[in-house]
């Protein structure tokens, strides 16, 4: 996959199950409202970030390349 340049979380879709936080713990953290947030982009490597996005049950994590093209989902 092309290098990830932007991570977006659709908080209206996020159900707060915390899977992304388990898979890529340095990048994603649930906030006090039970929604996932990006706490530190690129703290995990691209593979872990992709795996976190793929593991999200509602596909709320969107990944983009440097040209703004959506890489996932
Ligand atoms: S895996 Fe998806 S639904 Fe679960 S907390 Fe992360 S963004 Fe939200």
- Average predicted local confidence, pLDDT: 95
Which small compounds were modeled alongside the protein? iron/sulfur cluster
Question: For the report, how would you describe the main beta sheet?
Answer: 3 strands, antiparallel
Order of helices and strands: EHEEHEE
CATH architecture: 2-Layer Sandwich
Distance separating the two termini: 12 Å
CATH class: Alpha Beta
The spatial strand order of the largest sheet comes to 1-4-5
Helix/strand structural class: alpha+beta
Which assembly state applies to the chains in this document? Answer: single chain
Give the overall silhouette. Answer: globular
Strand content: 15-25%
Overall strand count: 5
CATH fold descriptor: Alpha-Beta Plaits
Rg, alpha carbons:
11 Å
Low-confidence stretches: none
Primary descriptors:
73 residues; alpha+beta; Alpha-Beta Plaits; 21% helix; binds iron/sulfur cluster
Give an overview in words:
- It is a single chain.
- The chain has two helices and five strands; from the N terminus they run E-H-E-E-H-E-E.
- A hairpin with a 5-residue loop joins strand 2 (28-30) and strand 3 (36-38).
- The chain is an alpha+beta fold and 73 residues long.
- It is globular and about 30 Å long.
- The chain has a three-stranded antiparallel β-sheet, covered by helices on one side.
- The model has no long low-confidence stretch (mean pLDDT 95).
- It has a single domain, classed as 2-Layer Sandwich (Alpha-Beta Plaits).
- The longest helix is centred in the C-terminal third of the chain and has 10 residues, at 46-55.
- The site of iron/sulfur cluster has 15 residues, from helix 1.
